[in-house]
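Hi all, posting the design record for the shared folder.

TITLE: backbone redesign
STEP: 1 of 1
STRUCTURE INPUT:
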């Protein structure tokens, strides 16, 4: 029976265990579509997808083309969600080369790369459409640009069609790699949240669960390939407003510790992750706001969770996690 299931999965999520992968898997599973959750750790995949009858689980090594090809066997569409540590962005292009080689070997027909705004560099105007120049001025931006170019240049070769979907920053229930995660944890615990300032600049965030239905639609939209598309958030909000709403849900006054660029440099002497944030700090002072009218023209209106509702759900998840960790009272 397992084999019959295995043959049926036509969509593979490479790097499935993160927030984006869980969002896409939930949307596919909800619409009855079988998918293959592919990652490095069977334990993490079992924890995330073991209860979903629509999920197959496969292990891969992203730096080995034969491992990629084995994980991709029988797939029509690959969705690439692979993250690397913030201080190891040089891994992005070589991992993508390996992945493309493996996908070609397996005869995969479509590839969707979930990308970022880093390749644009500083915004020349807002909102930013897909026609905005890509002038990455940071190391991380150049690595993401090189990764994108590998994907876009692979379009139409060896039977593969490719698409880059760019996202802004994100947040949501249990999305730990979000700039805003500390706000929901802080509000739930009644502790200080740590933010990177300035926190009064309007910024765009996508509510992570909104990503899944969009990617599911793109797997069914052949006309979307051979290009870049944007998915925008539900308008803009400041980090201070997010904090005010989250702490209000806990009936508390916001308690914030804000680190600016100078503080990041100091913290970076001790913490490599903080050091890496310095070059990307321009996204906080000079944020990019995306225009996704091209995507909506292709797949129709996109359902976007309001910030009020998204903050409520993210706070509720932080509260749940806190209660699960709390020792049972005697």
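Okay, here is what came back for every position:
SEQUENCE:
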């Amino acid at each position: 029976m397992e084999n019959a299931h295995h043959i049926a999965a036509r969509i593979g999520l490479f790097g499935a265990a993160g927030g984006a992968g869980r969002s896409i898997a939930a949307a596919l599973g909800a619409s009855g579509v079988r998918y293959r959750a592919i990652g490095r750790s069977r334990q993490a995949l079992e924890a995330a997808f073991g209860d979903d009858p629509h999920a197959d689980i496969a292990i891969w090594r992203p730096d080995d083309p034969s491992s990629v090809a084995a994980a991709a066997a029988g797939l029509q569409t690959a969705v690439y969600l692979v993250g690397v540590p913030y201080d190891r962005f040089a891994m992005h292009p070589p991992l993508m080369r390996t992945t493309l080689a493996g996908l070609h070997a397996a005869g995969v027909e479509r590839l969707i790369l979930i990308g970022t705004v880093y390749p644009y560099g500083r915004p020349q105007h807002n909102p930013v459409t897909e026609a905005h120049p890509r002038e990455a001025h940071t190391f991380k931006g150049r690595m993401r640009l090189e990764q994108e170019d590998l994907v876009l240049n692979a379009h139409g070769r060896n039977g593969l069609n490719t698409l880059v979907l760019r996202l802004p920053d994100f947040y949501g229930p249990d999305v730990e790699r979000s700039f805003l995660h500390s706000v929901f944890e802080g509000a739930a615990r009644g502790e200080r949240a740590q933010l990177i300032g300035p926190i009064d600049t309007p910024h765009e965030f996508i509510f992570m669960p909104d990503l899944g239905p969009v990617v599911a639609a793109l797997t069914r939209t052949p006309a979307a390939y051979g290009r870049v598309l944007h998915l925008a958030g539900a308008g803009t909000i400041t980090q201070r407003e997010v904090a005010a709403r989250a702490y209000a849900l806990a009936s508390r006054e916001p308690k914030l510790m804000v680190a600016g660029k100078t503080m990041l440099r100091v913290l970076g002497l001790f913490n490599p992750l903080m050091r890496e944030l310095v070059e990307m700090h321009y996204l906080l002072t000079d944020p990019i706001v995306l225009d996704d009218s091209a995507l909506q023209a292709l797949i129709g209106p996109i359902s976007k969770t309001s910030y009020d509702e998204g903050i409520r759900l993210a706070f509720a998840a932080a509260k749940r996690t806190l209660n699960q960790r709390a020792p049972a009272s005697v």
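COMMENT: Residues 171-203+235-287+305-323 form a domain with the UDP-galactose 4-epimerase; domain 1 fold (CATH 3.90.25).
Let me know if anyone wants the other runs.
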